[in-house]
């Protein structure tokens, strides 16, 4: 499947814990599709949208950028539209857009006679209160435990990004509040098999980014786990929140970050 190779370029490992139905796509004979990755956050801009074209699985690992597109992001709450500038091939950057929690954003792309749209609502900020380190029960490693308070009322979704030292390898975890509604959450960052996602050693610097996301983004990353775990001959595409036939996602999120040095 063409999108699998694009996923490899993202250099992420995604660890998720629920299931969604996905649609099978032929691994070797799919027509190239647009791959869109767009983000808006509560941090200062500019914000970026990347547009590339997928390739068949057996082709070279070069993904051509999609140039010459008209890309806009509208803050539907504030009734303001920002036209993004193509700063390099396939990379589009906002000019004056401001990300505000509680606002809804609409991405619109016109390119080569195609139109793609997506809407994402930025949830209110959930603060990453602290980071705990605990000796693993399964091996000699140490576990990372982000601590935050889930707001009362189900329907909160989280994307947790972990990086250790200066590594370019980023781990992404996704959680909902189905079992933790209104509670203090202090779950270990581990996969479903109890194996540590990344060894952390004394003296290491760890970076944790707690992103509060909407359901559409949660569903995208949740189905992405099925893609990365699927060993069948015809793996499936993640469930995109972009309409018009493109792959990828548009994510308006609020973020709370902490960096710490581990001293046992």
Detailed description of the structure:
- The structure is a single chain.
- The chain is mainly β.
- It has 2 helices and 16 strands.
- The protein has helices spanning 2-9, 215-229; strands spanning 12-15, 34-41, 48-53, 70-75, 80-83, 85-88, 91-93, 104-111, 114-121, 128-135, 142-149, 157-164, 170-176, 184-185, 205-213, 247-261.
- Strands 1-13-12-15-16-2-3-7-6 form a 9-stranded mixed sheet, with helices on one face. A 4-stranded antiparallel sheet has the order 5-4-8-9, with no helix packed on it.
- The longest helix has 15 residues, at 215-229.
- The protein is globular, with a radius of gyration of 19 Å.
- The chain starts with a helix and ends with a strand.
Task: Give a short overview.
The chain contains two helices and 16 strands. It has helices at 2-9, 215-229, and strands spanning 12-15, 34-41, 48-53, 70-75, 80-83, 85-88, 91-93, 104-111, 114-121, 128-135, 142-149, 157-164, 170-176, 184-185, 205-213, 247-261.
């Amino acid at each position: 499947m063409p999108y699998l190779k694009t996923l490899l370029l993202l250099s992420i490992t995604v660890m998720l814990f629920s299931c969604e139905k996905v649609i099978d796509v032929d691994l070797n004979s799919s027509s190239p599709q647009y791959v869109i990755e767009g983000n808006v956050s509560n941090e200062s801009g500019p914000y970026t949208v990347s547009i590339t074209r997928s390739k068949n699985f057996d082709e070279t690992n070069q993904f051509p950028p999609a140039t010459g597109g008209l890309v806009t992001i509208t803050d539907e709450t504030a009734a303001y539209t920002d036209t993004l500038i193509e700063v390099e091939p396939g990379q589009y950057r906002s000019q004056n857009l401001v990300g505000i929690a509680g606002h809804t954003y609409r991405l619109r792309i016109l390119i080569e006679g195609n139109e793609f749209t997506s809407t994402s609502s930025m949830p209110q900020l959930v603060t990453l209160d602290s980071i705990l380190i605990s000796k693993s029960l399964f091996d000699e490693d140490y576990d990372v435990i982000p601590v935050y308070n889930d707001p009362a009322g189900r329907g909160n979704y989280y994307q947790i990004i972990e990086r250790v030292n200066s590594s370019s390898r980023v781990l992404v975890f996704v959680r909902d509040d189905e079992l933790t509604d209104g509670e203090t959450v202090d779950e270990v960052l581990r996969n479903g098999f109890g194996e540590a996602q990344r060894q952390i050693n004394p003296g290491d610097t760890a970076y944790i980014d707690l992103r509060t996301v909407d359901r559409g983004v949660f569903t995208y990353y949740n189905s992405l786990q099925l893609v990365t775990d699927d060993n069948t001959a015809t793996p499936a595409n993640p469930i995109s929140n972009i309409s018009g036939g493109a792959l990828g996602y548009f994510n308006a999120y609020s973020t709370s970050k902490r960096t710490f040095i581990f001293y046992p």
